[in-house]
Write a structure and sequence with these properties.
This protein has about 675 residues and is of the alpha+beta class. The protein is about 25% helix and about 30% strand. It is built from 17 helices and 34 strands.
Length: about 675
């Protein structure tokens, strides 16, 4: 089908936290609101594959919602009951079920008179209200987005202060025509923003009824519109691209002449020390000189390093990159990302827009994702149903654009050796999960260059024959780890085989910490250094458990399992196995935590910093241009006021990032995401 569209002039930069008061709704507001009646059905899709559904029933006088999907063997199951007043605001909202990783949901909001009470995963709250106020549920289904939009459309400036905090804003993006169940009709796309880091894009019809939610890969569309999925998701790509293009235009600095960063100490990854104070000069995207401080030319732009530290751009080695995370990685000093599996077309378009300068983002090292077809498939990359198809998928990735292939859970273990043989002929490395009903020992013997996630290795030591890791079991079985003896022969055999075969490990420690140690109502350790700067939705998420630890003994077992993971990674490092730093959580702030955790396996701060820069540049074959600050290398680095060789936390306070010669000040980037900046930019003097 063909979509016709016209972009609104009120486009998408600055859709973050507005400071608008919530006016009391007019008495005739209800007349402007779409009627809630009958039943509605929605289809959930990822990359064009149906993975779940949402049903909505208004016939009881309340709105009752059932929402569930499964992708990659996991997903949420939510049941909601909502009562709504004439202003369009919920007065009673109950949500029960489980989140993607199993944490139980028992959320409630009740408005009685002028008193609002709510309980979510972070705890309970109460507010006395002077006027009707919109509550934003922590664990609502996508139908909640329309309830917010419905109330916002009836508001004069379409911005409302909400409970438990923040301001919701609705901005019209464009009108378009789509092929609905009754023929072509006009839809309006809106950006809903103010609670999380990025806007959410929703669709309403001409009567204001909810048609669905769209993202570049994921959609929830009213039954009858699911055939428009691909074209509508393409619009979501463009909305996001336009937003980030506008941000890029306002924050990126490119200079015609040379730029001198004066009075900085450079981190040398080879000696793992800081140099004496110097000036670093670059022009276009190349470092042209490293000189004594104070030497200046009239044609130069001068940036005052103020005695701080200049560090080469870091490598996030386990990303699934999208437009939303690309710029935040730049602001965090992550100038290169190894993408470990994506929609191939979406990633190709993202790479093109970054390389063209339209969007800010890191250099991307591509992994070709190959998954077996099953009811538990992750719908990325190439899905195959036979060994022959798997080999053909490897061949398609041998076009020079991909660094390696990545094998996933639903692959047949017996196909892997042939896939690796084909990859070798094409010069591709091989990394991946352990296919279901196989173990790490078999994949190491087959020729994996790198194991992905530490749990994928350790499960082979605690699972029984026939247990299926395509489900959440690959996570919930980690509670068996505390009883594991790391000196057991089966454990030592795996570690010895990895060392002997030169098999690396991408442990993704930070995601395991979040999975095993997050608890409802407690700010998890990985976010304490920055969470107060984040929007309210991010703050709520930081105090929410990932796993269900309600069964007797599970709380302690999950907590101790992370200790066993640290012990295992320590043993692997001591055995000489190459460790690879990646997050699988978007990088950015989480990447800083990922690096920090490796101090627990015996690595020093200077060692970690050298490993995350030059070490990974060398690992992916880019150390001739990246990974260290030297004359003739590319201008990828970041400036911090502190000394990261003394305290690794210094990398969390970045005043400037240069990627490919373009200068960014994070303090100018973060407000577009609703993030309070951490530090002022350096002083700059133009020629």
């Amino acid at each position: 089908m063909t979509l016709r569209y016209a972009l609104s002039s009120a486009l998408l930069i600055g859709l973050g936290l507005a400071a608008c008061a919530a006016p009391e709704p007019e008495t005739d507001t209800a007349a402007a609101l779409p009627t809630l009646s009958g039943t509605e059905s929605f289809i959930v899709q990822v990359a064009g594959t149906e993975i779940g559904a949402m049903s909505v029933d208004h016939t009881s006088g309340q709105t009752v919602i059932d929402y569930e999907f499964r992708n990659n063997g996991r997903g949420p199951t939510l049941n909601e009951t909502i009562s709504i007043d004439r202003s369009g605001f919920p007065t009673d909202w109950r949500v029960e079920g489980a989140t993607t990783f199993g944490n139980k949901v028992n959320e409630s909001f009740v408005l009685e008179g002028t008193t609002a009470n709510w309980t979510d995963s972070t705890g309970s709250g109460e507010a006395s209200l002077d006027a009707p106020t919109l509550y934003v549920a922590q664990n609502a289904s996508p139908y909640g987005l329309w309830l917010y939009a419905r109330a916002l459309l009836a508001d004069d400036d379409q911005a409302i202060d909400v409970l438990p905090g923040g301001t919701l804003q609705l901005t019209e993006v464009e009108t378009l025509n789509a092929a609905g169940p009754d023929g072509e009709e006009a839809l309006t796309a809106y950006a809903l923003s103010g609670i999380s880091l990025n806007p959410t894009y929703i669709l309403l019809d001409a009567d204001g009824a909810y048609i669905g939610l769209i993202t570049p890969r994921f959609s929830v569309l009213k039954a009858g519109y699911e055939g428009d999925d691909e074209a509508l998701r393409a619009r979501a790509v463009e909305y996001s691209a336009q937003r980030f293009e506008d941000i890029q235009a306002s924050v990126a600095r490119n200079f015609d002449g040379p730029v001198r960063i004066d009075n900085v100490r450079v981190f040398d990854p080879k000696s793992e020390t800081l140099t004496e104070p110097v000036s670093v000069v670059f022009q276009d995207n190349t470092i042209t000189a490293i000189q004594a401080p104070g030497e200046r030319q009239a044609s130069e732009t001068i940036i005052d390093g103020a005695g701080g530290t200049l560090v080469a751009g870091m490598y996030e080695m386990h990303g699934h990159l999208g437009q939303n995370s690309a710029l935040l990685n730049i602001a965090a000093g992550v100038t290169s990302v190894r993408d470990m599996g994506n929609s191939n077309d979406v990633l190709s378009e993202l790479i093109d827009t970054i390389e063209s300068g339209r969007l800010a983002g890191p250099r991307i090292i591509r992994s070709g994702f190959i998954e077996g077809k099953s009811p538990f498939s992750s719908n990325n990359g190439e899905l195959v149903s036979s060994q022959e198809e798997a080999i053909e998928a490897v061949r398609r990735y041998g076009n020079g654009e991909f660094h390696q292939i990545k094998i996933y859970n639903s692959m047949k273990g017996e196909w892997v050796a042939a896939m690796i043989e084909e990859a070798r002929t094409l010069g591709l490395r091989v990394a991946g999960h352990v296919p279901a009903f196989s173990n790490a020992d078999q994949m190491i013997a087959a020729g994996y260059d790198e194991m992905t996630h530490i749990n994928q290795v350790m499960l082979g030591w605690v699972l029984e024959d026939g247990e299926d890791t395509r489900t959440l079991l690959r996570l919930t079985a980690l509670k068996r780890l505390p009883a594991l003896d790391l000196q057991a022969p089966r454990v030592q055999a795996t570690i010895d085989a990895m060392a002997a075969n030169g098999t690396s490990i991408d442990p993704t420690l930070a995601i395991h910490e979040a999975l095993l140690r997050s608890r409802n109502g407690e700010v998890r350790a990985g976010v304490v250094d920055y969470i107060d700067h984040m929007p309210v939705g991010e703050q709520r998420s930081a105090k929410t458990a990932w796993s269900d630890v309600s069964a007797p003994g599970d709380d302690e077992a999950y907590y101790q399992a992370f200790d066993k993971i640290i012990e295992t990674v320590t043993a692997m490092r001591e055995a000489g196995i190459m460790l690879v730093p990646g997050t699988d959580m978007g990088g950015s702030f989480v990447y800083h935590r990922e690096l920090e955790l490796y101090q627990n396996v015996g690595m020093t701060a200077p060692e970690i910093l050298a490993w995350a820069t030059y070490g990974m540049a060398d690992y992916v074959g880019q150390s001739d241009q990246l990974g260290s600050i030297e004359e003739g290398k590319l201008a990828d680095f970041f400036l911090i006021p502190g000394d990261p060789t003394e305290d690794l936390k210094a990398i969390k306070t970045i005043s400037m990032v240069v990627k490919d010669g373009t200068v960014y000040f994070p303090s100018e980037i973060y407000p577009a995401f609703g993030i309070k900046p951490f530090i002022e930019p350096p002083a700059m003097e133009l020629p």
